Each structure stands twice: as structure tokens, then as C-alpha cells.
Amino acid sequence: MSERRKLHQGGQPKWNRAHIRELGLKNVEQYRAWCREHGFPVKPEKSWREEREELRLVERQQADVELDGHIEALGLVDREAYRAWCRECGFSDSFEKGFRQRRRELELAAKLQEKERGEKSAGTGESDTVDPEHIEALGLANPEAYRGWCRERGLSEALNKSEKQLRRERELAALNAVKRQRNRPGEVIEKICAGEIREEDLQADYLRKIHAAFAVLEGEEERGALRDLLVHASRCTGWLEKGMAVPRLGEVEGNSFVEGLITLGRHWWDWVRLVEEWRPKSHNLRRQFGSLARHLLARYDIPPFMDLAWFAGDDEAARRQQAWFVHIGSGGNIRTADIPVRFSKKMAHCFFEAPAGSTIEEALRWGQVTGQGGGEYLADAVLRSRLSRSFKNEDFWEKVIIFLVEQPMLDPAWVGPIVDYIYRQKYDHQEVVLPGGQVEYRDPPESNFGMKSRSIFKLLRQVEVQQAQVTKEQKARRRLWKSSGMGDLSYTEFDEETGQELYWTVQELLSTRELHQEGKAMRHCVSSYGRRCQSGKISVWSLQVEDPPEEPRRVMTIAVDN
After folding, report:
1. N or C: the chain end with fewer CB closer than 10 Å?
2. Which whole number is the average pLDDT over 145-161?
3. pLDDT higher than threshold 90 for residue 289
4. How many angstroms separate the CA atoms of 110 and 140, rounded?
């Protein structure tokens, strides 16, 4: 299917992150830059032939790096010197050689270098040495281990090498570490648990997350449980390197398979079965994870949407949802769990029938609506409103839901606007723009708003009025413009009648929102001047007077030709 067709259907083309990692790159931005640097097309979806060409280039580059490293290990300066040395020593002068051929060359070079150093040290008393920091950087313990490491990789075993040779060895060690971490994640996880690998030595993001998880665990049992879980998952599944587990949750902390596994590991004391006994029975990664979570924590059925608890992070709300998962899995009734909604038996039953694609919060609302007699269309409308994202002030919103259920002829399309209207009236502090652009926050219009004896017909009329007002205000906020440059004016005079000082100001109005506020207060249509103000042809000013302790009072609106 073409990229154009995928985008037409509403999908988003995805970057092949596994291919990016195979190239030795960390993220999409590095891959984009790499493609531009080497003349490859920069696009998310490529054919297998295009990916193969990119891999071949990397292989050629790696082969060049290995050849240059081999030449340096021999103590030679360039490829021409290498060809001459090979001919002189009876070796083939080809650049493409196998491991055994290069090892024989290194063995001969080492003998020649040892002989030369022996002759020099006999006269100077010097001895071979190697920087301990270099050995540590390679993850080795001592010079003998270093010699073995060099021997395994076909490098010179000599201890005194040039800085260029040492740098090549560190680059090779880093490359080998990437391959080992990618191909043997189980071994790497065991070493992380044992404290044998530093975080800065880990290349993959998921391994750094695992390292951070072990860093805060002290008990041997919990460390062992998490290690066993991660190692078993690495051998049975392909989760660890995957990105987002639940796309609809977005790029949030906790929303990856490795973080879900770490969270499961924190509940090791609730496990009812051995992790080693679990085997995946599906190719779907989400289903595999759900199967593992139920294997470890559940003796009774748990609805699929409850899996999202393990991808919600580690805050208080997430831990509460994870406790619900364990509670249901152990045979507990959802009504007796620490949920934010008061459930009847019918609501609890309907909770388990929520659509599989629901979030846990949406499932609670679904059970609340349908369990009280509301239809599925009404439940869907409630799930699309702000009520599916928060349970704050639930004692009041519970009454709102009962009110909606009791309106069988209400078009579900009105549910969202009704909820928004009630929220603005009862809980939303008002933002008022004062002259000069200052913003003042005021109490909600009806903080004592209640549902008792509320008429649906009157409520709908109020919603329509507010929607029109909101639309008008939104339009009024759309345009801003620069000041005319004349500057605001202020003047203080003494009022002989009242014995008070009057503070006069003339302030320029610089947005359609301020024009709207001025017109609303003065009861005229100055808001229609917005386009001319934006073009710079005129400027509009507000003359106001302040008589302390009274608030500033608008006196006159002035339009000036620029």
C-alpha cells in the first residue's frame, strides 16, 4: 500500500526503528541526517532493497574500519604500506582477508615488535605498560585480560600502542557492546542486576530504563524477581526494544513494554505462578503482555482494558489502578476496590462489559451510565466528554449523570456541551481582560449550581446562549496588532466636589478581544474596527477614570486616524 494511500486512510507512516538500530543509530533524527549525508532518500517507509543497500554501506564502512584498525595494529601508516609489508613478509596484499589470515599477520607483527622492543629495552631498561584507564574503558580487569581480548579480536597483543590504536580499540569495544546488547539482552540484564555494567556503557534506551529500575531496588528477592521476569521476557518475546505499548496514551512515562514489565516486577509479592512457566500463545504483543500479567497475578478473569494499568506510570493514580487489577484477579469485587465511583451490583456487572478499547477511566463511566439504565449511545457521549478524564468532585457529577440518564429523548450530541456548560458555571474561574491587557481571575459564575429540579429545556437554552458567547469571544481573541507608537496617557486631577483625586488614563486597545470588551462595556460596535486597527489605518483608545476606592470606569471610546 502506498504512503499516499495510507495517509489518506488516516494512518501515519512509521519509521522502521529496528532497521535504524541495525545501522547503529539511536533515533529517527540521526537516521535522517545519516541518509542525507550518504545520499539516501529521507522517508519513513522504504523497500527491503533500499534497506539492504543502506545495510551494505554500513557493512562496507565497518569493513573499512576493521581494515584500518588492523593496519594500525600492525604498526603501519596506511594501506599502501600494508600492501608493501604483506609482500615483504610473504602474505597476500589483498585487503579482503579472513580472520585467520589477519591473525597470522598480527602474530608475526607482534613477534617483530617484541623483538624490536626487547632490543631497545635491553639498552634503556624500559618495560612495556598500558594505561589502566584504557583497560577499564574496555571493561577488562587487568593486562592479561586485555591481551586475551586483543587475541580474540585479532589485534596486536603488544601493551605499548599509539593513541590512535587505543582509540580504535575503544571504538571496536563500543561496537561490540552494541552488538552484544542487541543479540544477547538476557546476559546484559543479568549483568545489570549484578551491578557489573555502568549505565553509561548501555546503548539501548530500554536497557538504561532497566538499569534505573535496578538502581532503586535493594532487596535480593525483589531484584531477583525483576531479573527473572525481564530475562524470561527477553527470551520468549520481542517486547523489550519496542516503543509505545498503547498508542492512544501517547508518549508518556510508563507507556512502553519494558516499563510495563518493570511495573509488574514491583508486584512480585502478588505473583501466583512462576514466571518461567509462562509461554506466549499469540503473536500480538499487547495480548502477550496481558497473558503474562494474568499468568502472574490472576486466578480469575480480568477485562482487557485493565492491562492499561501497567502502562500508566508509577504515580499514585497508576498504583491504585494496578491494585484494582490485582484485586479483581484474586477474585475481589470491583465494588470493594478503592474506585472513585460508587457502584451498584448492576454497575459492577456493566463495568466488565465496557468496550475492549476503553481506558480504565472510561470503563468506570461506562459501568456508571449503563448500570443505571442509560443506553450505549449516552455512554459513548459521556466517554467523549471531560467526565471520562477526571473524577474530581464526583459527588456532584454523579448527580449530573443520573440527570442525563433520566432524559431518554435527549440527543447524545448535547451531552458534551451540557457537561462543559455546567463545568464553566460551577468550577471554571473566569478570565477577564482589564484595560491595558492585564488579566484578572474571578470566581465561577454559579458556584452553587445544582441539579435538583433542573429543567432540561431551560438547560439546553442556557447551553446555546453560552456556546454563542464562547464562539464570539473566541473570534474576538483571534487578532492582535502593534501599537501605533503614540503611547498611553495618564492624568491626575482634584475633584472639588468629592475632595478626592481622580486618576484619568487613555489606553490603546491592541486586540479584537480588547475591542470586544470595550464594546460590551460601552454598548457600541467598536469591535467592528478590528480589521482597520490591524491594518494600521486607525487606532482605538479607551478613556477611563479611577475614583479610589472604586474600580476604573470607562468614560469614552476614541478612534484616531493614524
Report:
1. N
2. 75
3. yes
4. 21
Same domain, 285 and 154: no
Grid cell of 377 as nine digits: 449511545
Same domain, 506 and 471: no
Quickly count: other Cβ atoms within 10 Å of residue 231's Cβ. Answer: 19
CA angle 551-557-562, nearest 5°?
Answer: 130
pLDDT band for 8, please (50, 70, 90 cuts): very low
Which residues are CB-contacts of 242 (< 8 A; sequence separation ≥ 6)?
256, 257, 285
Residue range 200-238, pLDDT digits in tens: 778 778 888 988 999 998 888 999 999 999 999 988 887
Instruction: Place 461 in a pLDDT band, splitting at 50, 70 and 90.
Output: very high
Whole-angstrom Cα distance, residue 537 to residue 560?
9
Of 418, 447, 476, which marks where a domain is finished? Answer: 476
Q: pLDDT tens digits for 11-63?
A: 456 788 888 888 888 788 888 888 888 888 888 888 888 888 888 888 888 88
DSSP classification of residue 408: T
Classify the C-alpha dihedral 324-325-330-331 as positive or negative.
positive
Does residue 23 lie within any of the structural domains?
Answer: no
Distance CA 146, CA 69 (A): 16
Rounded CA separation 197/189 (Å): 9
Asked if residue 13 belongs to a domain, the reply is: no
In a domain, residue 20? The reply is no
- 290 and 426 housed in the same domain: no
pLDDT band of residue 304 (cuts 50, 70, 90) is very high
DSSP, collapsed to helix, strand or coil, labels residue 539 as strand
Number of domains in the chain: 4
Sign of the alpha-carbon dihedral angle for 392, 393, 397, 399:
positive
Supply angle C-alpha 132, 138, 141, rounded to 5: 55
Mark whether 192 and 327 lie in a shared domain: yes
Domain-terminating residue out of 147, 165, 182: 182
Tell me whether residue 24 is in a domain. no
- The reply to whether 416 and 531 lie within a common domain is no
Output the nine-digit C-alpha cell for 322: 494496578
Long-range contacts of 73-80 (CB under 8 A, 24+ apart): 73/106, 73/109, 73/154, 73/155, 73/156, 73/165, 73/168, 74/105, 74/106, 74/109, 74/156, 75/109, 75/113, 75/156
Please state, rounded to an integer, the average pLDDT across all residues of the chain: 84
Q: CB 258: neighbour CB atoms within 10 A?
A: 24
pLDDT exceeds 60 at position 524: yes
Spatial separation of the C-alpha atoms in residues 315 and 321, rounded to whole Å: 10
Residues written for the chain: 562
Average pLDDT on 483-498 reads 82
Q: Residue 380's pLDDT is what?
A: 95
- 388 and 324, same domain (yes or no): no
What nine digits make up the cell of 355? 468496550
Do 153 and 240 lie in one domain? The reply is no
- Domain span at residue 76 reads 47-182
75: Cα separation from own chain's centroid: 48
| Contact between residue 113 and residue 74 where contact means Cβ atoms under 8 Å apart | no
